[in-house]
C-alpha cells in the first residue's frame, strides 16, 4: 500500500505530457495534461491495453485513423495493437487519467501521426 500526492510529481515535459503516479509492477497510472495545440506521437502497444478518462477539457483521440472527440467524464478503452494518437485541438487545457496494463517496461511502438 502507498499514497502519492499528484503535486509531488512532475509532467514529463514541464507543463504537459504524462505525470506518472504509479509505474508498474502490474499497471501504470498517470495524469496527462496538454495545453491547446499539444499532442503526443501516434503509437500502439503489443501487449498493454490503455484507458483514458477525461478529467477536464476536450481531447481528440484518433484510434486506427478514426477521430473521437471526448469531453469531461468520458472514457475510452484502447486494445493492444490499436494505433492511437491524442491531441488537444481546443483552446483550453485538457487533463485526463491514463492507465496501462499489464505493465511492460518497453511496449510502445511509435508510428507516423495521422492526418486529422
Q: Please, could you describe this protein's structure?
A:
The chain is an all-beta fold and 116 residues long. It is built from no helices and ten strands. The strands form two sheets. Strands 1-2-9-4-7 form a five-stranded antiparallel sheet, with no helix packed on it. Strand 5 (58-63) and strand 6 form a beta hairpin. The chain starts with 16 loop residues before the first strand and ends in a 6-residue tail after the last strand. The relative contact order is 0.29. It holds the Pfam family Cupin_2. Residues 31-98 form the Cupin type-2 domain. InterPro entries: Cupin_2 (IPR013096), Flavonoid_dioxygenase-like (IPR052538), RmlC-like_jellyroll (IPR014710), RmlC_Cupin_sf (IPR011051). It comes from Treponema primitia (strain ATCC BAA-887 / DSM 12427 / ZAS-2).
What's the helix-strand series? EEEEEEEEEE
Question: Mean of the pLDDT scores?
Answer: 97
User: SS-based structural class?
Assistant: mainly beta
Level-2 CATH architecture: Sandwich
Low-confidence stretches: none
Overall shape: it is: globular
What is the multimeric organization of the chains shown?
A: single chain
The overall number of domains is 1
Report the sheet with the most strands, covering strand number, pairing sense and barrel closure.
5 strands, antiparallel
- What would you report as the Rg, rounded to the nearest angstrom? 14 Å
Amino acid at each position: 500500500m502507498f499514497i502519492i500526492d499528484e503535486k509531488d510529481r512532475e509532467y514529463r515535459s514541464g507543463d504537459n505530457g504524462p505525470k506518472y503516479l504509479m509505474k508498474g509492477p502490474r499497471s501504470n497510472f498517470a495524469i496527462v495534461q496538454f495545453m491547446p495545440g499539444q499532442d503526443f506521437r501516434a503509437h500502439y502497444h503489443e501487449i498493454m491495453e490503455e484507458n483514458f478518462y477525461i478529467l477536464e477539457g476536450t481531447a481528440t483521440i484518433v484510434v486506427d485513423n478514426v477521430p473521437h472527440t471526448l469531453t469531461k467524464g468520458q472514457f475510452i478503452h484502447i486494445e493492444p495493437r490499436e494505433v492511437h494518437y491524442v491531441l488537444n485541438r481546443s483552446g483550453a487545457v485538457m487533463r485526463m487519467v491514463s492507465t496501462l496494463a499489464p505493465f511492460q517496461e518497453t511496449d510502445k511502438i511509435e508510428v507516423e501521426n495521422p492526418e486529422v
